[in-house]
Structures are given as structure tokens and as C-alpha cells.
Amino acid sequence: MRAVDIIMNKRAGKELSREEIAFLINGYVAGEIPDYQVSAWAMAVFFQGMTAKETACLTDVMLKSGECIDLSGISGPFVDKHSTGGVGDKTSLILAPIAAALGLKDPMMSGRALGHTGGTLDKLEAIPGYRTNLSVDEFRTILIKDGFAMTGQTKEIVPADRLLYALRDVSGTVESIPLITASILSKKAAEGADALVLDVKFGSGAFMKDPSDGEKLARSLVDTGEAMGKKITALLTDMNEPLGNTMGNFLEVEECFDSLEGKGPADLMEVTLELAARMAVLGGKAKNAKEGRSLCEEILASGKPRQLFLDNINSQSGNAEQFLKLRGTFRSEYAADIKAAKTGYISGIDAWTIGHAGVTLGVGRNRKEDPVSPTAGIVFHKKGGDAVKTGDKIMTVWAKDEASLNAALPRIESAVGYSDNAPPPRTLILKEIVSK
Ligand code: URA
What we know:
- This protein folds into 3 domains: about 5-50, Transferase, Pyrimidine Nucleoside Phosphorylase, Chain A, domain 3 (Up-down Bundle); about 80-155 and about 165-325, 3-Layer(aba) Sandwich (Pyrimidine Nucleoside Phosphorylase, Chain A, domain 2); about 335-420, Aldehyde Oxidoreductase, domain 3, CATH 3.90.1170.
- By secondary structure, the chain is an alpha/beta fold.
- The chain has 17 helices and 13 strands.
- α10 links the parallel β4 and β5 (about 230-240).
- The protein is globular.
- The model has no long low-confidence stretch (mean pLDDT about 95).
- Bound molecules: uracil.
- Uracil binds near residues 85 and 184.
């Protein structure tokens, strides 16, 4: 077999066999097939798509490219959540300790910033010392102790996703339903979760721009996941505006901690609690989402998730005391404010523009080897629906250096829309997609 023939078959819209998919993916992981051929193949998949059979094969081949985490001997239920990616999308860091406090186990394998969207691993690593490259033994130990553990794809666990994810990030091949499905479900199968709640985003800041494409992605994820034996449900949620009041690695960790102290912004808490409620249902702690939500609200008010979050920082080689001291101060020195250009209302802050500006600020990457900045990002003092007067502070922006700040500012200003009248409220959660 030759990689070039597989690329050309996909380019011609043919269905690839399991052998062809395995040849390409395993060859890539073994270092025998170069980045440029796999990028070309990913681009062919982007344009031609994959059948459900090919998507299932790709997921399975990626899963089998490494070890699975052995959760035997640990009592479950193992329930996790994954998002298809957004801007300011930080719900994992709030709901994992909530789920753990409810008595669920959340074995969370996450990703890095992808395209214009943020990554849970990059956010967590903004906490000085925090490690996301856990060995399987460390992952197990922390899961038992804290009820949740957060790790990334490694050379041992789903190495195919580790490589492909980084390649797609910089080759314009992220927004593909089969590639997203295989990437998410290979990680989720390897981590050992029995049940999965998916946050499938649509809107300008999501990979799927319109709700109908979001729903197709949700259906692909739910059907493929179900065929793999997972209990699975998906919420289709709005990502036209950044979620919460921050975008940036350390800033978002801080906002999650504020949320665990009961000070989370309304939009962030709405999406987080609705996702957590479904985790409670799939984990057998609640009969329905309404009951699950009440349980999550009660446990949040108890302060237990807040303590588990701090415990987990220590467990993963960070320092909770130092984290608390850095809170509110760990910022880049290169900063500027964005002021309202008009009097009226903010009609919206465009998530896509903010996500791309975030890459320039240093929150995400342009090349796969680029480091990200822990202290770059944006605080939104105003969001869509807020009344403003000319000159009011709308955002504070921090960048990794001065040139990046100057390059990003005009773009950030252009993300703000104005209207004379209050815009209609957004519906954050459009629908739930369940297994058939
Ligand atoms: N999240 C993932 O893990 N993979 C994708 O491809 C997109 C979002």
C-alpha cells in the first residue's frame, strides 16, 4: 500500500477500507508517513467526508494506536464530558469537581487549544507546576483520591490523536465531522468513561457554524459513541459569543475557581450546570436532568467541589496555595483596555474574531511547536445585551508581548457589535440529542 494512493482515493470520494485507514494512521504514528501526506489526507477527508463505517474504523484505529487506561479495581461510575470546542469554553474545570463531589468518577482526557478555540490542557498548565502528562498509574491514583484526574493524549495513550490533533490545528482541517468524531471518541474510549455528556457547539466561535451542522456533528458523535457501547447524550449549545467573562489560559482557570465559589457568570453557569445535570443522570445519581441540576446546585453550594479543585492542583504537581496567591495578579505586563465606541447596547461580541485574536495574543498556537502564554487573554467587562456609554471599558486585554498586543487590538475592537435597542436574549441551549 502507498499513502499517496490512499490520499487520492479519498480525494476522489471513495470509501476507504479499514486496512487503508490503519495503514495511514499506524504509519503516521510509527513515523513512517510524513506530516505532509497526512495533512493532504486530512484535507481530502475535510472535503469528501467519511461514511459512518469509515468514521467508526478511524475511531477504532486511533483508539488502538496506544494503550487504554485500565480502571479495573476502581469503583465507578465513570462519567465524563467533552466539548467540541469554543472560545472561553471552560466548563470542564467546573463540572469535573462537581461530578466528583456527587460521587461520580471523572477520568478526563482533554486536548490543547485547537484553531481559534481554547484547550483544557493549556488552561490547566497555566497553573505553575500543574502536569497534564500523567502516567497511567498516576492517573489512576489521582482518580481514586480526588474523584477526577485531568490528562492529555501521550505517546502511550491515543498517540494518533496527539499527532493528528496538532497537525489539524495548523493545516486548516479541524472543521470536519468525521475527524472531530474520531478525535473525541478515541480519547474518550481510551480514558475508560462508561458514560459521556457532549457539549456540541454551534455558532461563529464553534467549528460548526450553523445549528444544523452542529446537530449533524452531535448525531455522528452520539451514534458512533453508542455503537462503541457508551451511554451518551449531547447538548447543542450556542457559541456565538465567548462563554463567561474571560478568555485566556490562567484567566479561565481563575474564572472556574470563582464559579466554584458561587461567583460564576450566568451564561457559564447555565451551560455548566445543564451538562453536569446530565452527568448526574448518566451516572445514576438523578432520575432526570431537573433533579440532576438541583443536586449539582446543592453540592456546589456545599463548597466540596471548590476543595476538590484545590486538592487536584496539589495532586497534579501544582501548588494550591501558590495558585490562590496568583489569583487576580498573574497577568502579562502588556495590557490595554477596549472602550465603547458608541452609546447604546452591545449587540454581541463575536466569538470567532475573539478566538483568532486570542491566538495572536498568545493564548493559542500558529505552529504546532509554538508555546502558549499562561498570562495572555481578555476579561470582558461587558457582553451582548449590556447597555454602554461611549468610553465605557468593555474589555481588558493582555498579550504575550507588545507587538502581539498591537496586532490584536484592532481585531478585538472589530468583534464588538452595537445596537440602539437591547438585542433579544440568546437561547444558550438549543436542544438535547440522545441515542436513538
Ligand atoms: N475536541 C477534540 O478533542 N477533537 C476535535 O477534533 C475537536 C474538539
